[in-house]
Amino acid sequence: MASxxxxxxxxxxxxxxxxxxxxxxxxxxxxxxxxxxxxxxxSSIWKQMSDAGIKYIPSNTFSYYDQVLDTTAMLGAVPSRxxxxxxxxxxxxxxxxxxxxxxxxxxxxxxxxxxxYHFIVPELGPDVNFSYASHKAVNEYxxxxxxxxxxxxxxxxxxxxxxxxxxxxxxxxxxxxxxLLDKILPIYKEVIAELKAAGASWIQLDEPTLVLDLExxxxxxxxxxxxxxxxxxxxxxxxVETYFADVPAGAFKTLIALKGVTAFGFDLVRxxxxxxxxxSSFPSGKYLFAGVVDGRNxxxxxxxxxxxxxxxxxxxxxxxxxxxxxxxxxxxxxxxxINETKLDDEIKSWLAFAAQKVVEVNALAxxxxxxxxxxxxxxxxxxxxxRKSSPRVTNxxxxxxxxxxxxxxxxxxxxxxxxxxxxxxKLNLPILPTTTIGxxxxxxxxxxxxxxxxxxxxxxxxxxxxxxEEIKKVVDLQEELDxxxxxxxxxxxxDMVEYFGEQLSGFAxxxxxWVQSYGSRCVKPPIIYGDVSRxxxxxxxxxxxxxxxxxxxxxxxxxxxxxxxxxxxVRNDQPRFETCYQIxxxxxxxxxxxxxxxxxVIQIDEAALREGLPLRKAEHAFYLNWAVHSFRITNVGIExxxxxxxxxxxxNFNDIIHSIIDMDADVITIENSRSDEKLLSVFREGVKYGAxxxxxxxxxxxxxxxxxxxIADRVNKMLAVLDTNILWxxxxxxxxxxxxxxxxxxxxxxxxxxxxxxxQLASAK
Length: 765
Description:
The protein is of the alpha/beta class. It contains 27 helices and 22 strands.
């Protein structure tokens, strides 16, 4: 039996690619320097998998930003605003599409299915002149082959690429993107021909959209596309890979009938119902790539259970046609457990990062072939038993409190309109109040202070002094800019989830468990291994200190329970909603302590609420019910005069707008500018929103500084569909990834735009 890995993390065990990218973007290193770091990373990944015994090793899963943008480059689908004149796409055009530049904005960025990974959304229309403009897939295959590794080149499948795209600006929203299939397939054929000529014997086409609820015409597009590609694919073994959920029965039927396809890959961790379809109707003579090792979490595989599952599948497809695989790309997990020298030994024994998952996949393949590593399986069984019986996992008081939540829907007693009136009397804010989302730039000096404090190189007194000075700088800047509701800038926090997890029980932390979110942005998700509670206040000290520095309202800044859940590696031994309710109770304690400390505006970020929405519509209602309920739990007991904000970013919110309203926050700030103000269409279509709302007026993920006129134009578009008395003016997201030389003029222009429109509105009365 053979083994396969869908994809592998790109950043490197110590985030080598992140630092190389940022050095290049800052002009401190050359394109050749960046390419050298990247080549070294690819080489080490291929060697690691080869040494581990993996037979089907992927190539072209490395990316400088994301694999969908790579496909856009391959197809030459560059929006005209980037002034690309043809030829092989170089870094300048590529990174302008991803990040924008001084003169034009970036393309839209959104979440990759229900993960915290992001991709750049292709902008397509009838006038796009597709051309073969990036030979990356072929070049990386040749690169690996020159190192003695025969890989499986991976491409985003043509139908999924189009289904993940959007009509470009100026193109009718109803434009049928699948009508472009005939225009992109010739380029896929060119790529396939070059791969065959280079010696490739396998190719992997990722078609993850097959797990979605697709209408019949979309399923027909798969049939059409692969029938068209059949002759080009002749002579190759072709794997069509799916992941993240069950493949619906209709899509399964379409998938297994595709022309020219040799093998099918399924996520059997999150897609357990697909098993029944495989057992009843998997086509004879085809390969089954069985994704039994979880690519999205860090728990060690239950090898005995996975082996039993593979053995049952062996009877369906035959030993020579069964391949042990990961459930999806390992991009979504941390790189290597060997770098975790400070992690608790017991917890460490329960874990497997990407490097360990590669070993697990091969161990399963060997066991099924009759070469079972008894010692490895025995150690795994012991770790599984240890985790089930460890007393550190369970806290009866927490479980009892969480269970008691089931009897109430936890709503504040007064409706939002009355609360806003009470809050305005206390806060006395102008119309179109200005604010920011929370974080301010994380300078090199600030990171040094946190790092040295953690390493005990500076005292607590020195640390508090340095952080206090940073907060004062941020407060003074906001007062200078005349922002209405202030933030303290979060200088004490490296990450919005990690910061809270470090202060909650039931969490563990890694030193190098970094996971790519987008581009060079990496996060280090905490590990929720047990029941969650809050031993002591987490933010009250810093929020109170910041409020003492100003007479303006200072927001208390918290991360909400759903976001903490969705941005963590979550225990898989109880339902996710139970863990979420536990976190909600901990955040509720913090909200009440902030209110007691005199903080009158409290922001509870739920940036990841939409991200956790199941991929299948039938499962939406259950998730949204417990997710929204969890948010309401956090602030149910506070006074009407305390204003609760929440924040959401980089997802499509239009389909859950009624659940967002049901969260019953007083104010929501929400990403809007980078997605072409898609959010506003909801209000144009008649959805009534009575709470405060701040659709973002500029994109903080681009270094570009918007003009006052541009921001004012955005605000006026918002006023066309939203009442003046509920609209807030704010950026799309937090400012930690930007530099002060970008932040200050952008915020200056934002405040100026708000004041200009206030004056216009006053004179119009």
